[in-house]
């Protein structure tokens, strides 16, 4: 390598050997400093220290003697470099780069420069002009240019050039070479290269080049002008590519390069997502990602046609997407909004003479708490109805419950802790849109209520609650929690994940009414602290849900003894025990009526499992597996929601609901019999 100092007009050549290096006539070992500019080694202004054969240090040890008002420059010429043998596949890059590393206080800049390019054994490359557009009729493709890196890189191949020393350009599946013209340039003469089209074993069409004469004097170039055919009509648009490769030493491998030479177009619009952003449910004016609508062919969007963009339930447009052209021409104009803000429409004001691609960007949306996790836009237009994902929706909080079991008709039943975790800092707000104190609401389903105000506390983070304002509302079904100060500091969860604060609702006691069905008790979480879009969406969309507990019906005691009722008697027998009632069974129109309440008592149902509705004259009996309803005056009863007809209707006598005893016993699942001699009803 040579160091040239223009102010001195001096060039110094440095030669590197295996174990040392020389500067001028002096020889130095690696690690020693050599004089470049200056009087003596001790007082030299500029020195060179070779660390090894790959790294040298240039040291400016004193102010140069020449005028310092001029910029100090040195030119470094890499006269010759040694390249170790290496396979092309092992190279990270074909560029030979030199890295310059200078201290920040030195006045010199650091960086990397390319001083050469490593030519692999192949020694040839191909490039292509901009891709053309073709249809099912085929057509002209982009011009392909093949270049040798050095003269003679592509070796003369054998007469059987389809088998040995091959040079080939293979088309994408579905396309075939048609008309081909070769234009030799550079070191190639007129007859240097010929060609033949051949079908590969995989069915792809290949253009084989026959190298009749190697290039001489200068590297050869070859311009390939061609058209292609479409083997059969294709239903989707795609890129048409050419793969360059072969076994000729000047190629360097079966698949050395790939270029796009055409774009196959089919009629119709294509919708493609460009980006999908992260947004938060329950927030307004959230920016979403961009997407494109592309014509398959020019004219797919004729003038006057409409395009609609529709959001799913739980989302509304806030700012309409901006439209920009990425290709072609044409004009789209905003037309209006419908579907309560879920759909925006655009009209084609001017059609495109070329294949147009429109980009929709910079749009914002308002989201309900119940917005879907993947926010999509459904695009409808001429010949298209497609859905594209534009955002990933995260709930502001995660709600979970420890899980418990409660029973129907029982008061003050304890259930596990409810945990509310902010998924992001500041998820729970302190003020609503009107400036009032924002609240978090936890609402139980109908028939279930809080027996008292639970304990609410912040277990992690710096969120602050208005403890004095925590209360029960809506007939004790809703727990209202005012937020005093939003969280501001992230809390590290696990694996470095950062979240907001954590709330715990503890000491929960529930009262469950007798009419509550078996199954999950679902808690609804809502409120102005959680959502700023409450006024924009229905309550069913502005809530989060969590299963708080499982409701089960108390199992009745198993009947192990016989129960006997006697017509005309107010006394009845349960096993060996005799009991009293205030109305006697009787016979009417061939049916034996007995008081429903005492029949229920006799088979083991308690007061909490017998429910009388005086408004519609309905009695409901709850057993471990069944819910049975009888209505006065109605010839039928309801069992597990299914109507079962009877030939007699319940009636009221002396303030008691009398039911044909056989239907009641059967509905509850017990065996019944009749003793005509003793006029006795027997239940077992």
Q: Which residue ranges are poorly predicted, with pLDDT under 50 across at least 5 consecutive positions?
A: 555-560
Mean pLDDT: 87
Distance between the termini: 111 Å
Which range best describes the helical content: under 10%, 10-25%, 25-40%, 40-55%, 55-70% or over 70%? Answer: under 10%
Radius of gyration: 44 Å
Please tally the helical runs, counting DSSP H or I stretches of 4 or more residues.
Answer: 2
Instruction: Tell me the structural class.
Output: mainly beta
Mass-distribution shape: elongated
Question: How would you sum up this structure in a few lines?
Answer:
With 684 residues, the protein is mainly beta.
Question: Explain this structure to me?
Answer:
The protein is mainly beta. The strands form 15 sheets. Strands 36, 39, 42, 43, 44, 49 and 50 form a 7-stranded mixed sheet that branches. Strands 12-21-20-15-18-17 form a 6-stranded mixed sheet, with no helix packed on it. A hairpin with an 8-residue loop joins β5 (33-37) and β6. The chain starts with a strand and ends with a strand. Mean pLDDT is 87; it is low at 555-560.
Summarize the SSE layout with pairings:
Blueprint: E1 2-5, E2 10-16, E3 20-23, E4 26-29, E5 33-37, E6 46-50, E7 56-60, E8 75-77, E9 95-100, E10 111-117, E11 124-128, E12 132-134, E13 139-140, E14 144-148, E15 168-171, E16 175-186, E17 193-199, E18 205-211, E19 220-230, E20 238-246, E21 253-264, E22 269-273, E23 277-280, E24 286-287, E25 291-295, E26 306-310, E27 315-319, E28 322-327, E29 331-338, E30 343-350, E31 357-361, E32 364-367, E33 374-381, E34 384-394, E35 397-401, E36 405-407, E37 413-415, E38 418-422, E39 439-443, E40 448-450, E41 455-460, E42 464-465, E43 471-473, E44 478-485, E45 491-492, E46 498-499, E47 502-506, E48 508-512, E49 519-526, E50 544-552, E51 563-566, E52 571-574, E53 577-580, E54 586-588, E55 591-595, H1 596-602, E56 610-613, E57 618-622, E58 627-631, E59 636-639, E60 642-645, E61 651-653, E62 656-660, H2 661-668, E63 672-675, E64 680-683
Parallel strand pairs: 12-21, 23-34, 36-50
Antiparallel strand pairs: 1-2, 1-8, 2-3, 3-4, 5-6, 6-7, 9-10, 11-14, 13-19, 14-19, 15-18, 15-20, 16-19, 17-18, 20-21, 22-25, 24-32, 25-31, 26-30, 26-33, 27-32, 28-31, 29-30, 33-34, 35-38, 37-48, 38-47, 39-44, 39-49, 40-48, 41-47, 42-44, 43-44, 45-46, 49-50, 51-52, 51-64, 52-53, 54-55, 55-62, ...
């Amino acid at each position: 390598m040579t160091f040239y100092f223009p102010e001195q007009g001096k060039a110094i050549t440095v030669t590197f050997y295996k174990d040392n290096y020389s500067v001028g006539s002096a020889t130095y070992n690696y690690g020693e400093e050599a004089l470049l500019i200056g009087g003596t080694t001790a007082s030299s202004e500029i020195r060179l220290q070779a660390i090894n054969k790959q790294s040298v240090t240039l040291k400016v040890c004193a102010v140069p003697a020449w005028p310092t008002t001029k910029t100090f420059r040195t030119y470094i010429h890499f006269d010759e470099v040694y390249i170790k043998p290496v396979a092309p596949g092992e190279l990270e890059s074909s560029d030979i780069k030199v890295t310059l590393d200078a201290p920040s206080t030195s006045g010199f800049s650091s960086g990397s420069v390319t001083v050469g390019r490593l030519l692999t054994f192949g020694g040839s490359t191909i490039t292509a002009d901009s891709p053309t557009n073709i249809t099912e009729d085929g057509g002209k493709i982009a011009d392909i240019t093949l270049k040798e890196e050095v003269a003679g890189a592509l070796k003369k191949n054998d007469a059987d050039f389809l088998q040995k020393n091959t040079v080939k350009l293979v088309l994408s599946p579905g396309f075939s070479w048609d008309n081909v013209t070769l234009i030799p340039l550079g070191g190639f003469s007129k007859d240097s290269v010929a060609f033949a089209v051949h079908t590969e074993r995989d069915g792809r069409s290949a253009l084989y080049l026959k190298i009749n004469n190697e290039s001489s004097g200068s590297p050869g170039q070859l311009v390939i002008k061609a058209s292609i055919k479409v083997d059969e009509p294709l239903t989707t648009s795609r890129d048409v590519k050419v793969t360059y490769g072969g076994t000729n030493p000047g190629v360097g491998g079966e698949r050395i390069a790939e270029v796009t030479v055409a774009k196959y177009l089919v009629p119709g619009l294509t919708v493609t997502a460009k980006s999908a952003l992260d947004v938060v449910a329950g927030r307004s004016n959230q920016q979403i990602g961009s997407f494109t609508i592309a014509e398959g062919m020019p004219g797919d969007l004729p003038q006057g046609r409409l395009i609609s963009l529709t959001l799913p339930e739980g989302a509304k447009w806030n700012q309409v997407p901006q439209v920009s052209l990425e290709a072609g021409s044409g004009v789209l104009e905003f037309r209006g909004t419908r579907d309560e803000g879920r759909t925006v429409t655009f009209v084609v004001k001017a059609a495109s003479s070329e294949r147009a691609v429109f980009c929709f960007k910079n749009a914002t949306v308002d989201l309900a708490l119940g917005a879907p996790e993947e926010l999509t836009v459904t695009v409808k237009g001429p010949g298209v109805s497609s859905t594209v994902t534009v955002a990933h929706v995260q709930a502001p909080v995660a709600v979970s419950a420890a899980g418990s079991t409660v029973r129907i008709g029982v008061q003050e039943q304890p259930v596990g802790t409810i945990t509310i975790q902010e998924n992001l800092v500041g998820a729970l707000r302190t003020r609503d849109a009107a400036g009032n104190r924002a609240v978090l609401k936890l609402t139980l389903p109908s028939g279930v209520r809080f027996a008292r105000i639970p304990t609410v506390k912040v277990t992690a983070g710096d969120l602050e609650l208005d403890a004095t304002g925590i209360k029960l509302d809506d007939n004790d079904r809703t727990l209202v929690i005012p937020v005093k100060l939003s969280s501001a500091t992230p809390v590290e969860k696990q694996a470095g994940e950062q979240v907001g604060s954590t709330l715990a609702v503890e000491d929960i006691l529930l009262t469950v009414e007798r009419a509550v069905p078996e199954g999950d008790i679902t808690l609804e979480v809502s409120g102005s602290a959680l959502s700023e879009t409450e006024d924009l969406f229905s309550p069913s969309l502005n809530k989060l849900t969590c299963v708080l507990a499982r409701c089960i019906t108390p199992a009745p005691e198993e009947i192990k003894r016989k129960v006997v009722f006697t017509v005309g008697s107010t006394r009845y027998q349960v096993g060996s025990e005799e009991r009293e009632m205030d109305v006697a069974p009787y016979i009417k129109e061939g049916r034996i009526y007995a008081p429903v309440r005492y029949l229920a008592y006799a088979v083991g149902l308690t007061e909490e499992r017998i429910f009388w509705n005086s408004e519609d004259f309905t009695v409901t009996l709850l057993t471990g597996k069944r819910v049975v309803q009888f209505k006065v005056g109605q010839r039928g009863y309801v069992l597990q929601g299914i109507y079962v007809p009877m030939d007699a209707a319940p009636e009221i006598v002396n303030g008691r609901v009398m039911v044909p005893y056989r239907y009641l016993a059967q509905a509850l699942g017990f065996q019944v019999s009749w003793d005509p001699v003793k006029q006795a009803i027997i239940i077992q």
